Amino acid sequence: MTNDVGTNWAGNLAYSALTLHKPTSVDEVRRIVAASSSIRALGSRHSFNDIADGTAELLSTAALTGPVTVDRERSTVSVGAGIRYGELARELEREGLALANLASLPHISVGGAVATGTHGSGIRNRSLAAAVVGLELVTASGELVRFSAGDPDFDGAVVNLGALGIVTRLELEVEPAFEVEQTVFEKLPLENLLRDFDGVTGAAYSVSVFTTWRDPDVADAVWVKRRPDRDAPLEGTLFGAVAADDERHPLPGLPAIGCTPQLGAAGPWYNRLPHFKLDFTPSNGVELQSEYLVPRVHAVDAIRAVRELSAEIVPLLQVNEIRTVAADELWLSSSYGTDAVGLHFTWVQDQPAVQKLLPKLEAALEPFSARPHWGKLFTSGAQDLDRLYPRLEDFRLLAKRLDPDGVFANPFTDGLMGR
């Protein structure tokens, strides 16, 4: 236990909790939670908002990493909530196994990524949370509860925002290990993207489009992650974009040393699906992030709406990533019930200016039913979220049942619950 709680990864939020617990076992978690009246889980600190702030105590899941247990008959792996995806991936590779997809950063914890609905890209790839088939969490009374796929409340318990309890362990679907080739194509004419969005984003297993909007008619780059066992071969051009002659960073002009290998060289799934290597400090570090997910049918119109705001966006933007997510049935998933497209914004670290811009950006995306990423900066209120998430009231009832006294409540969840 320590009082040195510190900040989130980006440094834009100093946690207000007076106490940070660092348990090393589930039994220890149960004792800590049972004795607390106000506590939340803290993962790898990669959230940009106050989702993990505003309680008297925080409980770090960083030491809750093992054991990693593979069940080959069920094609699953059971892991501690605190393990980072990059670390889990290496364990799975040794077993000849893989996860279907990974986020751009392998540094994030499994528990935190699942709880906030984090995702990678790919028109057939669901969110990371959709790989969950079971989870264990400690409720406010200190009881250890398990949810399994098929249980009545399972779809509500997976993307849980930390509002139901402290998740200590998860069971994920796995598949045989596979290789991926990563190629970056540059200078995609934006009209080609808008004319054939499905063609561009469906060109391979995982595709991300990056643009700075400095030229509103050109997307800077398309990162294409191809599975040789499934995808058609790539050529030297892609819808008018040309293959890069050297490795690239998603932020134009930065060195690519921390990025996963490119230039079409085949390699392990875990060293190509993320944009960044586990052994390097991820991304640029000094940044803020927002993301809004719109139903795929609205993707082109939503991109056009962002382009209309490009003059106001550019001064605050480092890069805008456009990526796809397949539908799932998790109540608070941003791809609940619909194939989705994520419009992800990496901002400069000027939070007052970004917060001032967000309502205008959200208003422009409002006609397209844009759902915010739970772990990033947004301003949508409870009334908006009720419209966007049809099962939100069911989630409120589940949270009330598991945490009747609001032990895991904080200002973030109070807004969600309409308190």
TrEMBL record:
Domain FAD-binding PCMH-type: 13-177
Residues forming coiled coils: none
Keywords of this entry: Oxidoreductase
A GO MF label: FAD binding
GO annotation, cellular component aspect: membrane
PANTHER family xref list: D-ARABINONO-1,4-LACTONE OXIDASE, L-GULONOLACTONE OXIDASE
Name this protein carries in UniProt: Xylitol oxidase
